[in-house]
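User: Fold this, then the next.

Assistant: Folding the first:
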Amino acid sequence: LSELGSESAKIKAMGIMDKLSTDKTVKVLNILEKNIQDGSKLSTLLNHVSFKLHNFTLCRIEFSSLETKSADACLTAINIMTSPNMPKAVYIEDVIERVIQYTKFHLQNTLYPQYDPVYRVDPHGGGVLSSKAKRAKCSTHKQRVIVMLYNKVCDIVSSLSELLEIQLLTDTTILQVSSMGITPFFVENVSELQLCAIKLVTAVSTF
């Protein structure tokens, strides 16, 4: 899927995605949806659960595999749909909604808590700290898999703005995308995501 994501980006840049068989492209999108679904509900805040070292390592490997797989599937699907001159058949509503659900879920439940401690939930029910105090205690170190997921999600958010300029989406989908584009401006330490969100909000405002 990682290779498929890279190759689909190249084919998109070359402007020849529309030369592929429509039927086969639709089949690929339906397969990608299943891969996106695998990671759309996976909780990644492993530091909130106590594991033995062996089990923790296995869980982290499983998380890494599922998340990168699902993120690459999202990127591949978006690359296909945002390529020039694509037929209407490729704009599958279920696939678009699955990409948005995946992105929103991991922004809210994985990335925001990792990058901004204000969004973290104390599993031990400790005393209430102010936003400033929480941020002061925050470590800047991030696991490699979290950084990788963050970069991929930024690419997805940026590509969704392209999709909005191409395809008419339902009102419900637009509301979800609007929420996704606005929230990053209230989160600390996500400047790259905020730049992508500006593009997304701009695209929504012209809808």
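Now the next one, as you asked:
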Amino acid sequence: MAATSGMAKNVEQFLKRVRKWDVEFLCLGQTKESFNMPRPEDAMARMTANLEYFAANYAFCLALFALIAVVIYPQLLVLVCCFSGLWYALLTRPPHIKVQVAAILVTKSHMKYALAGVNGLVVLIFARTMIFATIGASLLFVLAHAALHEVPSKAKGKMEEKEAEREP
């Protein structure tokens, strides 16, 4: 029960970090904080500040990109369904299960490692192009937003404090 309440607190803390989608993230109806091209010397500081400030929003965007990819590419949907079933079957076994394979005694942790290896190998063989395209598109979106979005006034104070710490 304690693990569940601890996880609920973590989720609650994460959801508190989500910024308003319309006003802050997309700048709808705002004129002072909007999208513009940064000066080359300010680009890295702007990206760093925005990546930190909008981290929860970016996590939701990456999850949305992954969900869209699974829906658009049926091959990914099949892989997700098959491996979800295998992981469910493995994780619902008793913790101290052991299987005798020839002369070797295989524990549940061995089975987890083996399934993780097979899972990764099959995904790389059958879906690498789709996965890398999705990762590339989502990273391009996140980095473009972080570079072009004006640093929010709430995050500017933190950015100036960090710059003051760096300078001797």
